[in-house]
Amino acid sequence: MHKVSIRPHIVERVVARRGRLRWFETLDPASAALVIIDMQETFCAPGSPAEVAGSRGIVPAINALTRRLRPLGVPVIWVLHANTHSNGRSDWELFFNHVVSDDVRLRTIESLSPGRQKVWQDLEQGNDDIVIVKNRYSALISGSSTLERVLRSRGIDTLLIAGTKTNVCCEATARDAMMLDFKTVMLSDCCAALSDEEHLAALETFIQQFGDVMSADEAVAALEAHGV
Fold first, then answer.
1. CATH superfamily for domain 8-82+117-225
2. Do strands 212-214 and 183-192 pair parallel, antiparallel, or not at all (unpaired)?
3. Strand 76-81 to strand 183-192: parallel, antiparallel, or no bridges (unpaired)?
């Protein structure tokens, strides 16, 4: 788990501009969902082609959080990444041809094939949890996944974002959520990046322009305080 926190001068800047630190003092559990991004073998397994070693460190925090949210009626949504390939072409050619080298490309293509995606083995899934597959960094960009449709159909307007990487798929999804008018919270101790610096940079940008940054405990407290 990352051992960094929002720096005091960023907090001061936010408060000076907004008049308070939090966008949302309480969160309604009846309209909230936990969205956990990319916690799957490609990113979590040691030696995997896109390994984020820190992702394994947030597993206990995510498990502890889901145990607290399910009794509150907050849906747990697992968003996994997959890309299709046929006749030598991918549904995301730009990524596979330019972001990864040839040797890594083949391993990544194999690891992200749709048929093998499942939630990382050390995470606890509930019987009522939802699993969605995306094919871009953001699960909410047009055509990437069914996430927005699922959320709207359930009357969900508040998202808690967890998973990996903080500064890539988590941040991309969280930013798009705010742009689509979802109240959005990034969970600082349930997200992981490749370094403390990248993790912190994402959270400090997010808290200033896109939504709240809370720990899991703070988010649960905000949910439990609703209507009190």
1. Isochorismatase-like (3.40.50.850)
2. parallel
3. unpaired
- Model confidence at 228, pLDDT cuts 50, 70, 90, reads low
pLDDT at 222 over 80: yes
Sign of the Cα torsion 198, 176, 223, 70 reads: negative
Output the average pLDDT for the chain.
94
User: Quick check: 153 and 159 in contact, CB under 8 A?
Assistant: no
Q: 0.85 exceeded by the pTM? A: yes
Average pLDDT over residues 113-132: 94
Question: Could you tell me whether strands 32-37 and 89-90 are parallel, antiparallel, or unpaired per DSSP bridges?
Answer: unpaired
Residue whose entry in the numeric block shows the structure tokens 């956990």: 36
Residue count of the chain: 228
Round to whole Å and give the CA distance between 92 and 192: 24
Pairwise CA distance, residues 38 & 47, whole Å: 16
CA–CA dist 88, 97 (Å, integer):
12
Within 13 Å of residue 151, how many CA atoms lie on the same side as its CB? 27
Token digits for 168?
Answer: 């890539």
CA angle 203, 213, 194 (to 5 degrees): 35
Q: If you ran DSSP here, which 8-state letter would residue 133 be given? A: E
Helix or strand run (H / E) with residue 33: strand 32-37
Give the number of other CB atoms < 10 A from CB of residue 73. 11
- Checking if the pLDDT of 102 tops 80, the result is no
Evaluate whether 65 touches 34 at the Cβ level (below 8 Å).
yes
